[in-house]
Amino acid sequence: MAPAITAAILAGGAGTRLGGRDKGLEPLAGIPLVEHVVAALRGVDAMLIVANRNHDAYARYARTVADADGERHGPLAGIAAACVACDTPWLLTVPVDCPDPPSDLAERLLREALAHAASAVVAHDGAMRQPLFALYRRELAGSAASAAASAQGVWAWQDAIGVRELDFADRGQQFHNLNTPEDFIAHAARPRSIG
C-alpha cells in the first residue's frame, strides 16, 4: 500500500491581477475556482487549503490553515504551514489558480520519490519547472519555514533541498494558471482536458 498523501491547495495570494479579489473564490463557469481544483485532485488521502483570508468560505471544501503569522509572505510560507499541518508522510502542493491539474499528479510524483529515495519531487511541464506542483516529505517543514523567514523563494529552496524534477510534458497544458478576468473567460470557453 502506498504511503498516505495530504494535498494542500495554496490559496494565500493577494489576487492583485483580479483587483484584490480572492482568486480561489472567483467563479469559473459558475463554480468557485477552488472547487475545480478540489474535484480534480486524485490519489490523496486528505486535503487542506492554505488561505490567509475567507477561511469560512474555504472551510466548505477542506480544513484550512494560514501562514504562520497570517501575512502573505509568498507560497513558500504556505508550503511551510501546510507541512506543519500535514498528518501524513507526504504533502502534495498545488496552486489554487490551476483548475485542471493532471489527475495522476500525486501518483507519478510519489512513484518518482520512492524510486529515488527523494524527499521532494517537482513537476516539469516540458518547458520549465512548475515549483508549486510538488511532493514533499512532511519533515521538510522546518527547512521550509526557515527559508520562508529569510525571504527565500520556492525555486531556490527546492534547489537547496535537492528536489528531483519529473517530466510531465505529456500533460504540460494542464499546468496553465488563471490570473486575470480574461484568463477565466478564456478557460471557461475551451474544451476541458481529461487526465
Would you write up a description of this structure?
This protein has 195 residues and is of the alpha/beta class. The protein has helices at residues 33-40, 55-58, 75-85, 105-115, 141-149, 154-160, 181-189; strands at 5-10, 27-28, 31-32, 46-50, 63-65, 90-95, 120-124, 129-137, 164-167. The protein has one domain (5-189): Spore Coat Polysaccharide Biosynthesis Protein SpsA, Chain A. The chain is 30% helix and 22% strand. The chain starts with a strand and ends in a 6-residue tail after the last helix.
Q: Main traits of this protein?
A:
alpha/beta; two-stranded antiparallel sheet; 195 residues; Spore Coat Polysaccharide Biosynthesis Protein SpsA, Chain A; 7 helices
The assigned CATH architecture is: Alpha-Beta Complex
Tell me, what's the shape? globular
The SS-based structural class is: alpha/beta
The total number of structural domains is 1
Strand portion, in percent? 15-25%
Order of helices and strands, N to C?
A: EEEHEHEHEHEEHHEH
Main sheet summary:
7 strands, mixed
- CATH H level, superfamily name: Spore Coat Polysaccharide Biosynthesis Protein SpsA, Chain A
Helix content: 25-40%
CATH C-level class: Alpha Beta
Q: What is the overall pLDDT average?
A: 89
Tally of individual helices: 7
C-alpha Rg (nearest Å): 15 Å
Uncertain stretches of 5 or more adjacent residues: none
